[in-house]
Design a protein that fits this description.
The chain is α/β, with parallel strands linked by helices. The protein has four domains: 7-113, Fumarate Reductase Iron-sulfur Protein, Chain B, domain 2; 137-248, Rossmann fold, CATH 3.40.50; 257-381, 3-Layer(aba) Sandwich (Rossmann fold), CATH 3.40.50; 389-435, no CATH class. The chain is built from 19 helices and twelve strands. α8 (163-176) crosses α17 (372-388) and α15 (325-341) crosses α16.
Length: 436
Amino acid sequence: MKLHTSLEDIKRPVSLCIRDGMCTYGEWPRCYPLCPIYARHRVFTASGGGLVCLAHAVAENRIGYTSTLAEFAYECTLCEACDMCEIIPVPPPHVGPVEVIRFLRHQLVREGMIPEPIAEKYGEDRGVRVARFKAGMDAAGRIREADAGTVLLVESPARAFEGSSYEAAVRLVSKIGQPVGLLEAGPPIYDLYDLGFWDELEEVMYLKSGLIRGLEGKDVLFVDPHGLEFFARRYGELAPANVEMRCRHFSQFLADAVAGGRLKARKERIAVSYHDPCHLSRGMGISEEPRDLLSFLGVELLEMKRSASSTYCCGAAGIPGVSTEFSRWCASERLEEFRETGADLLITACPHCKEMFREVLPEGDKNRVKDLLEFVLRAQEYMKREAMTFNLTQHIEIDQVMLDLFKQLPSMVSRDKDVQWYPDGDSGFYATVVVI
Ligand code: SF4
Ligand code: SF4
């Protein structure tokens, strides 16, 4: 949707909603509930169609901008499940339910109706929000291997929880051996679009446009599916000038490396479940490549009942980086589904999902969720260790109780040099014992 879209522009499309509630459920015959706000409240108002109808009522001056309206609009996790609606026209002027919800938020921002946690994180007024963004641009602009045809775009160096995923990406690039540039591009801009800060977005896009122009003609890799979807599907419509680039998720880059024989890894004898991030599977249609990578690692994949384009949101995307009671509820729902599979680990391909699940998991279980890139990197590094030893390599899987017993092993190593133990201190679920 264009940043200067008006209420008048959307009046006709939003009037088409027939309130059938189809946008709250997944495909027939299973019809799993997919809209988190509807799953929680069980009223049509709390759904994609409900928010479309509220936007219609606002456009016709039947209701005003109230804190209740803001509550509904900002509780939505932007999971895109409702964008399957075939009635509200999606092609230009592009007003599927999710775009309508973003637009409604933009109107609320203009009316000063921003929920407190968002105002706290992003600033009370436009000046503060733009100043914060500009401060974040100080570290931007560094590019390594500028001539490479493939560039990893790092858009969020300030958010600590994403660090390990980016670090894994950089280390995997070096192991694959293909020249890949790295561009540090300052704070992300997709969240400004998602939260309705469209006036600010317009201003800061100019700040970034020089950097982004440098990506013309390149393959651009993203670790964060939200950034990927924004640049692949929206940037051209919103930015001052479009940039022709091929946006790809890092899992696609890894899947290519595996297919080309440029990445090898140890087989992981473990049962995992894969959580499809909404913006990767629904937003970008990418659900095969992460599974290809898991299959390459030899894991037993135990699918949750809602998967691929029928995935269920982890709750993190409503207000990026802000956890609410509702987002934690969404994550708990999803984790219950994960537990039903009986898998040992939950793998996802988005740092936000990983962080959201980690927040909800009990203390001793937090490492049961992994980012796909970290998981692949670990398997690659273990393979290297095994290659350095020669004789019998025995890989064993242990549970938390056994782990305590195996912690005795390092002292055995010091007494008896024919055993080497490689604990995975990160997950606590693996140890590799090499008997020489
Ligand atoms: S984007 Fe997701 S949470 Fe929001 S209304 Fe649509 S289905 Fe529901
Ligand atoms: S938004 Fe579309 S699917 Fe949802 S209730 Fe309205 S017409 Fe039905």
